[in-house]
Every structure is written in structure tokens, then in C-alpha cells.
Amino acid sequence: MQEIEIAELRKLTEVIKEKYNYDFSNYAMSSFKRRIQRILEMYKLASVDVLIKKLTEEPRFFKEFVSEVTVNVTEMFRDPSFWRELRDHILPNIMLNHNNISIWHAGCSSGEEVFSMAIVLKEMGILDKTKIVATDIDTDILQKARSGVYSMKNMELNQKNYLRFQGTTTLEKYYKEENGKAIMDKSLVEHVSFREHNLVASMAFSKFDLILCRNVMIYFNQALQNNVLKMFHESLFKYGYLIVGSKESLIWCEIANKFIVANNEEKIYKKIKD
Amino acid sequence: MSQFKLNNQYKAIVIGGSAGSFQVISKILSNLPKDFELPIIMCLHRLKHVRHGFVEALNIKSNISLYEPEDKDSIKKGKIYLAPANYHLCIELGNHFSLSTEEMVNNSRPSIDITLETAAYVYKNKLIGILLTGANKDGAMGMKKIKDRGGLTIVQEPSECMIDTMPVAAIKLTQIDHVLTVSQIIAFLQELDKVYKQST
């Protein structure tokens, strides 16, 4: 297959913006290009032009397109040392001054991180004091997150991560196995609000004590990252925490001076200025 | 007299390796001049869930310290970069990195193909690709992309490899410019260094 040209990608993002009001023009180019290449192969489309035609003529296809263009690879308890830090320092710190905690998972994908969080909170005995909002651009993946059904194949890794996290029990306690699927204990996410939200069109919609956005902004270019980080700053209470992926940083961005580093290794930042 | 007919057109070197490549990379890094000018971007297969130790272990022998880039870090002269655990390392237009947690490619994350292909796209004929010993085919397609875009391709001499699957796959897929032993790869890099120093 012919290598996709940047000009073709520009044309594609323009058409999508025009027709569907979704803006992919500030996505990081190399991964966006690979996602489009993957979609062409998956749907056996000969070129970006054919994809554009399909998107123009079949509005229903756009939903599938959004699901495929976004990356939905995730794990429970990814970076176990981060989850330990959250349990041992960050959450207790918030609880010092609050009776309740509000948490936003921005770009929650299939929900593994939300379940991890709920398990941590449950083991700390504070799940019922927590309000969690989990958002994603992709409504299909939100449905998967809500249902909490995962393939048993992935659970092996999730269990290993949980062991490294050193929780109070075993991960098996939180799901039952049926037909090769792990069905998560629904009571964990009973009070989680799963909502559609596009970070690119970002407007602050509420305030939180803790925002997690790990390995999501890596698919954006720096200009877009900067805007999203500004919106996260607005969406945090003073002394709230923002957590990004272990290989992301916000030292370079416009609002960097409004945060201090709470833990550099785990990329945990604390808002100190409005 | 130059054995490789080198010039100073190159902007970066990418190195891929898997099983058996740790010792090879250590040897290369300990023989590299301290002020080696070109950025070296390395993608080595590694344990997905061990974040620490690898770069530290390589740094013990290296003359230039290695660094695992963060998302959107710029690529600078004289630096050596190593793909972090459990992320694909991509090169973007505008001379910076981006990271990705996309699906594994060739059962690998980081995938050598992804690093090599994105580097080939950005640097075109100004790229040198080196593929070392390894037990799977990751990197072969990347080497082809480098060659197709006019870059220079080098693989480790298969008979010298701990496991030769990786270089052999690349040789089958594309025209490799040089098949070299580790000592020859070191000689190549030292000669390249001289070319750059003479031209400045």
C-alpha cells in the first residue's frame, strides 16, 4: 500500500471538522497516520480519498471511525508503583482536608483504570465517599467500560500488576469468570458517571480533587496538549492533583508555574495557584 | 582511506536490537567518542513492565549517557535515546519524539519497526539504520522503509549474532548496504565521527 501523505491527512481532518465538528488536526502526526493506515486496511479502502468519501456518505460510519482512530490499549494497575503512591500518599493527603473526593478519569477508554481506582478506594474504605466521572470521546468504548467485561487473556497481566501494587487481597476477588470473560463486580462502579466528552473541544464542566489523564495526551501535538492542560487546571480545586502518564510532563506548558511536582517519578502534579 | 565512502549528510542514527543485543550495544557505546555528533535513537526489545534498570545498566559502559525520552522531547545532537518500556517511540516531523501505547507490533512494544519507519519518514536519505541480533522479525520492515527512502542500512553479520532471525529477515526483505561485524560497526561509527569532525 502507498504511504499516506500529510496533505491527504490534512484533507481528511478538514472534511471531518466540517461535517462532524470533531477536530483531529492537532493529533500527533505519526500515530494519527498509523491509525488511518490501520483503518484503510481494516475496511479494505484503497486510499484516504476513499475513506473521505465513505465518511461523507455514511454518517453512521463516523462512530466506528472514532472508535478505531483512538487508541484503546490499557491495563489495570498499569505502573503499579504509581498506584501505591496514590494509595499511600495522594489519597490520604486529600482525605486530610475533605470528607469526600471527586475524581475525573479523562480519556478512560475501556475502563481498566476506573476499576483499578475503585478497587484502591474500596480497599481504603473510602469508595462510598468518592464521586468519579469517567469520560471518553468514543461512546462504544464507554459502553464497554460500563459493562466491565474483559477478556480473561488480559487478566493475567492485570493480576500481575495487582500483585506488584500489593493490594489487600487478590484481583480475582473483584470478578467472576464466565466463558473466557472476566465479569467485574459492578458494585465497584455503581456510582461512576461514564460520559461522552471530547478533550479537544475542551470546556471545563466541573471541579475535581484529582484528575487522571495518563497516556492520552501523547496522541496530541504540543499546542493541543497546552490547551487541554489549561482546561485541567481550571477543572481542579486549589491543591488538587493532576496525574499524567509516566513519560509525560507539564514542565514546558503555559500553566506549569501554577503546579508543583508532588512526585516526579509518577508524574503527579499539585495545583497551587488559581 | 575511507572504507565506507561516508559523507556528512546524515542527521540521525537508529539502532534496533533484541535477544543478545545488550552486550553488542554495550560494546558499541563503550567505543563511541564522547563527543559523537549525531543523535542515536535506540529501540531495543525489553521487559514491558520493568521501567527501571535498563538504561542505568547501559549507562555503566557508555561514553555518552543514555536517556529515555518523554513525550514530545526534542531530538538533540550528541544525545543517545532509548525507547522506554511499554511505549512505542516515534519520530515526528519537527525533530521531536512522540510516545504511543498502541497495540503491540510484531509482539513488541516498543516495536523497532515503528521507530525505524517513523524515523525514515522524517529523515529520508539522511538516516542510518542499524539492526542487530534478535529472535524475531521486528525491524525488517523498518529497514526496508529506510532503504526505500534513500537512507543507509547496516545489519550485524548473522554468523556473529546470538540469534540471527532479525538481521536475516531484513536481508531477505531489502537490499542492505553493509553486513558488518560488531567491530566493523564500531569502525564505521568512528569513521563517521571523523568525517563530521573534519567538515566542521
TrEMBL record, chain A:
> Cross-referenced PROSITE patterns, in alphabetical order?
CHER
Domain CheR-type methyltransferase spans what residues?
Answer: 1-274
Write out the transmembrane intervals: none
One Pfam family it belongs to:
CheR
Report what the protein is called.
Answer: Protein-glutamate O-methyltransferase CheR
Taxonomy of origin reads: Bacteria, Pseudomonadati, Bacteroidota, Cytophagia, Cytophagales
Automatic annotation (TrEMBL), chain B:
Q: Which UniProt keywords apply?
A: Chemotaxis, Hydrolase
Q: Does the keyword Nucleotide-binding apply?
A: no
Q: Which PANTHER family match?
A: PROTEIN-GLUTAMATE METHYLESTERASE/PROTEIN-GLUTAMINE GLUTAMINASE, PROTEIN-GLUTAMATE METHYLESTERASE_PROTEIN-GLUTAMINE GLUTAMINASE 1
| Upper lineage | Bacteria, Pseudomonadati, Bacteroidota, Cytophagia, Cytophagales
What PROSITE patterns does the database record attribute to this sequence? CHEB
Q: Which reaction does it catalyse?
A: [protein]-L-glutamate 5-O-methyl ester + H2O = L-glutamyl-[protein] + methanol + H(+)
All copies of the CheB-type methylesterase domain together span 6-189
Extract the InterPro entries matched here.
CheB_C, Sig_transdc_resp-reg_Me-estase
Looking up Pfam families in the UniProt record yields: CheB_methylest
Family annotation (SUPFAM superfamilies):
Methylesterase CheB, C-terminal domain (SSF52738)
The record lists the organism as Rhodocytophaga aerolata
Q: What is its EC number?
A: 3.1.1.61
What Gene3D superfamilies does UniProt report for this protein, alphabetically?
Methylesterase CheB, C-terminal domain
The UniProt entry annotates the active site at S18, H45, D138
Q: What is this protein called?
A: protein-glutamate methylesterase
Q: Which domain of life is it from?
A: Bacteria
